[in-house]
Design a protein that fits this description.
This protein has 120 residues and is mainly α. It has one domain. The protein is built from two helices and no strands. Keywords: Coiled coil.
């Protein structure tokens, strides 16, 4: 739609779409922080495991740490999958917003057209 000066007006983004996008981005940021924390804890556990293995005679403790490491690795994989799903959901939300904006602009253009030609 053109304004009075012949320039195109900027389309306004639906506030609910912005809110949803920010919410998903916030969730992604939280997941990244959790992912970083799990990664650090796994690295520390691996370091402790190696240190204990080098000290000798601590086989049961090493086995326990290995089980815990495997458990945290699974958690890390789940978090990575969740992040991937959220990224996909964000992309879908953006596409949906674009379609809705296009539909609304079409409706607005029709309303303006009919207002100008005097149709009811």
């Amino acid at each position: 739609m053109k304004g009075l000066c012949g320039r195109r007006r900027r389309r306004r983004i639906d506030p609910s779409a912005v809110k949803a996008t920010l919410k998903v981005l916030g969730l992604c940021a939280v997941l990244l922080l959790v992912l970083a924390a799990v990664t650090v804890s796994v690295a520390v556990m691996a370091w402790h495991s190696k240190r204990l293995a080098n000290s000798g005679g601590a086989g049961s403790r090493v086995a326990e740490l290995e089980r815990e490491r495997a458990k945290r690795e699974k958690q890390l994989e789940k978090l990575a999958q969740r992040e991937k799903d959220l990224q996909k959901q964000l992309g879908q939300a953006k596409e949906s917003r674009k379609r809705l904006n296009a539909t609304l602009m079409g409706c607005l253009e029709n309303v303006v057209f009919w207002a100008l030609v005097g149709g009811d």
